[in-house]
Amino acid sequence: MGLYVSKNCRFTVAVHICALLAHNAGKPATSDWIAESVNTNPVVIRRTLSALAKAGLVKSWRGSNGGSVLAHPAQVVTLAMIFRAVDDSEGPALHQQPPSADCPIGAHIQPVLVDMIASAESAREKVFSALTLADVMNSIQRRAA
Amino acid sequence: MGLYVSKNCRFTVAVHICALLAHNAGKPATSDWIAESVNTNPVVIRRTLSALAKAGLVKSWRGSNGGSVLAHPAQVVTLAMIFRAVDDSEGPALHQQPPSADCPIGAHIQPVLVDMIASAESAREKVFSALTLADVMNSIQRRAA
DNA sequence: AAATTTGTAATCACGACTGTAACAATTTTA
DNA sequence: TAAAATTGTTACAGTCGTGATTACAAATTT
């Protein structure tokens, strides 16, 4: 029914899915079961699972007894891998329309900002590269205790 | 007329505005003049100028000979200040609907992700804090030469 | 008084996003 | 072989964010 959306939450949902699969210890999980924990529609889960599968992070099977499992141990799956698999946002956007080439600022600001934004995004990605799904599982267990 | 918008470009526009004001060396710039370089509508410029003014980064005057100037030297204005003034986006969003509290993962994943996302955003902000408007001006001049 | 400029509200068109229904394809089970 | 379960994918609806635009009051200079 399209409720309030401030921005995309695919990364959050994807990490949630991967955490459930890790917790499920190799037993295939159905999109219906995952959707109950995430509190959304199973199609939303299957869409995200599809993106994760294309990135090689999960494997899925159709049919009776079908479902999805993690393709790799939680220790080697980083949040950066999950982010790249489901979210293509890349920081602040450049101008909608190209700025004036007749202006000394307008003529050169875009490549300058591209570099600066890229280095900022790179710093963010570095943090996600240092965090694994196993770290997520540990933090969850610590909070549950 | 509402063209294609992948995500907001207010940060880019704000840096462009500040660079123009820096280049203008204290002479008040009108929103019409700025809009020509940025290639957008003057109201869009005034909206962003308004946000920059609320953050204390620019000063504006109405009336004939009105316009805007930088409130501080380019050396002390960081991209982080500009970003915070105009963009309130804060990385990947959490779940649309709260996840199931009955699930061991669903019950605890949100605070875990909040922390991890915050540390990633903090790394990004750190890069923007180390870059000043003067750096932007230098990079532009280097490219113009 | 006239001209200029900002500040701000209202509105429009468009795209992104999530949720939902529908259904073919695949796989297991009886 | 038939039935049931499950994924994969398309299509579409509702809502929101975004930038462009119009309009006009408020402020300032000439």
The strand line-up of the biggest sheet of chain A is 1-2
Oligomerization state of this entry?
homodimer
Order of helices and strands of chain A: HHHEEHHH
**Biggest β-sheet strands, sense, barrel of chain A:** 2 strands, antiparallel
Model description:
Chain A has helices spanning 10-23, 31-38, 42-54, 79-86, 109-129, 133-144; strands at residues 58-61, 67-70. The two termini of chain A are 37 Å apart. The first copy, chain A, is elongated. In chain A, 37% of the residues are buried. Mean pLDDT of chain A is 95; it is low at 1-6. Chain A has 6 helices and 2 strands; from the N terminus they run αααββααα. Chain A has a two-stranded antiparallel ribbon. The interface between A and B is large, with 61 and 62 residues. Chain A binds a DNA duplex (30 and 30 nucleotides) through helix 3.
Concise overview:
Two copies of one chain form a homodimer. With 145 residues, chain A is mainly alpha-helical.
Strand-helix topology:
Two copies of one chain form a homodimer.
Chain A lengths: L9 H14 L7 H8 L3 H13 L3 E4 L5 E4 L8 H8 L22 H21 L3 H12 L1
Antiparallel strand pairs in A: 1-2
Chain A binds a DNA duplex (30 and 30 nucleotides) through α3.
List keywords for this structure.
6 helices; mainly alpha; disordered N terminus; 2 strands; 145 residues; DNA-binding; homodimer; two-stranded antiparallel sheet; 52% helix
